[in-house]
Structure formats: C-alpha cells, structure tokens
Amino acid sequence: MDDPKDDFERSLAFADIAMGQMKALRQPAYPRNYEVWYTYATGQNLQLNAAVNEVLAKGSFCDQELGRIYEELLSPHRFTETIDQVGVRVMNKIGQVLAMVQIAAGDVTQYSESLADATNALVRAGADSESLHVIVESLVESTREMEARNRVLQDRLNDSNREISLLKQNLEAARTESLTDPLTTLANRKYLDMAITRLMADGAASGEPLSVLITDIDNFKKFNDTFGHLTGDQVLRLVAMAVKQNVKGQDVAARYGGEEFMVLLPRTTTQHAITVAEHIRKAVMGKELMKRSTGESLGRITISIGVATMRPGDTAASLIDRADSHLYAAKRAGRNRVSAETEAQPSPAKVA
Fold first, then answer.
1. Positive or negative torsion for Cα 48, 49, 55, 59
2. If I label 46, which of 39, 108, 181, 194 is the partner at 20 to 30 A Cα–Cα?
3. pLDDT tens digits, one per residue of 322-347
4. Do the domain assignments include residue 348?
5. One domain, residues 173 and 286
6. Global model pTM greater than 0.85
7. Are both 165 and 296 inside the same structural domain?
8. Which of 80, 68, 77, 79 is nearest to 36 (CA)?
9. Are residues 64 and 93 in the same domain?
10. CB of 216 within 8 A of CB of 327?
11. How far is CA 165 from the centre of its chain?
12. How far apart are CA 61 and CA 51, in angstroms?
C-alpha cells in the first residue's frame, strides 16, 4: 500500500517519460498519444509494450501506428466493437442457415408433389407394365435429385456450423479479454465487481458463507523503486501465480488494484478461508525471486492478508472494508501474516 505522496511522485515520473517520448518522436501531445506513452512507461500492459517496441525497432513511429496501437490495446470501445462485429457475423450466418432451411423445405415440398403425381399415375396406369416402368424411373430420378440436394445442403450446414463455432470462440475470447488483467492474467476489477455482487446474492439466498481475502505485497514500493518497475511486474506475476494455484472451483481470484489482490471464496467459512490464505502466504514466501538478466537472487517476497466473511445486511463495500481493516491489522502486527475477523480490530492507521 503506497502513500499518496509516493503515488504522486511515481505518476509524475511516468508522465515525464511519456512526454519525453512524444518530444523525441515529435508527436502531438494529444490525450490519446499521452495515454499510449504513459501506459508504456508503467510497463503494466505487456501487449502494448511489445507492440510499441516492435514499431520502434523499425526506426520510425508515425501517427497511424500510434493510432492503431491505441485502438487495438487501449480504446475503451475496442471490446464492444469486437463483440458487435462478431455478433453481426453470427446473425448473418444464422440468416444464411435459415435461407438454406427454407430452400430445403421447398425441395421437400416439390419431392412430395412428385410422389403424389406418381401415385396418381400408378392408379391410372393399372397393370400397364410400360407405364409402370416410366413412373418408377421418374420416382428414381426424383429421389436421386433429392439426395443430391440433401448432400449439398448437409455440406453447407456443416460449413456454417464450423463457422458459427469459430465465431462463438472469437466472441468468448473477446469477452474473456475484456474481463482479464493483462499483466497477471487474473480477473480484473470489472469482473470482480460483477462476481462479488453475484456471489453475495447467492450466499444470502442459500445461507452459505462467503469469505473474502485481500492480499497486499509487503514493502512493494521499496522493492519497485530499488529494482525497477519491470522487476516489480515480475513480483506481481509471481504473487498472482501463487494466488491462482491455491484457489479452485467457483473461487474467484482477481487483481484488485496496484499490488493488491482479492480472492472470493463461496461456501467457505472464516476458518477455512484462513487456511486458504495461509497456503497463499506460504506459497509466495517460498518462491525466491531471481533477476533474469544476471541470475542474481533478489530475495523473497512476503504478503499480508486480511480475511472477512459475509454477515447479514452486508453490502459489497462493507464486506470489503472489513477485509481491508484486517489487512491493515496484519501490516501493523509485523507483515507477512494473515489477520481475520476474530483477531483484528479496525483502525484508520495504514502501513505500507
């Protein structure tokens, strides 16, 4: 947890880097351009940094390239547009399938009429063998034509089914991306807000407990300032992996903001939630951080965790506030520990 003054100074440093990049490349200081370079300076969007580095490696960086990167990786409308585009394609494909079904229905009607005509002709023909032969040949030909049309229809339906399946995958991928934190691959704040509302409603209806963990990396700012934000990102991914490996089933693990993570544990009592929290804490503490470029050991990371369980009348805000107060209690008690409902007293004091 960072002091507001530290956040102010860090944000100014990122702003200086962003402005420096725009000056060096002689790009207008439009809000869009600033957002791209500020995000690049923070290093929190790996896809954006990779895209920018790829363009920089080519030796030039025009406004069109910057606009493309913004639209693909930062624009608030990018997921909506992608989902809308896929939705339109799905609707068009469904329209094509319905048209094929209508054509098939017409073919069936025509075939039925051919059978009816043949039946009437049989009645009229009586025992005339030559007439019977002609009628049978007509029926065979109609059947062959119907089979051929059915094969064509089946092939087209199979193609449409494959395309619709692919479109559904694209739609799900866009939806997943819009709800995922790009740095840690955990759920993002948007998904977390939806999940806690849903799980609290489920818990209230069923009477089952819902517990919440809030995790914060101890002394993260000092570590980040000492080794740089790229190593800081490595720390965030390490903690995220430890969280992810210790949740299962319907549990929800999310990046809450900055160096804080939250875990929602449906059907989990306070005591069981404490056990999960301890597993996460020990998993993080057990991982040694190495500097990739040199193999140098950077030591071990520790985290503090606050635990709260839903009470009657709780709102999402009140439940999170209680978990947050227990997190601060864990910090005050020396960090690298879990503090839960039964042992923490809320306090306004905050510790990094």
1. positive
2. 194
3. 999 999 999 999 999 999 987 434 44
4. no
5. no
6. no
7. no
8. 68
9. no
10. yes
11. 19
12. 11
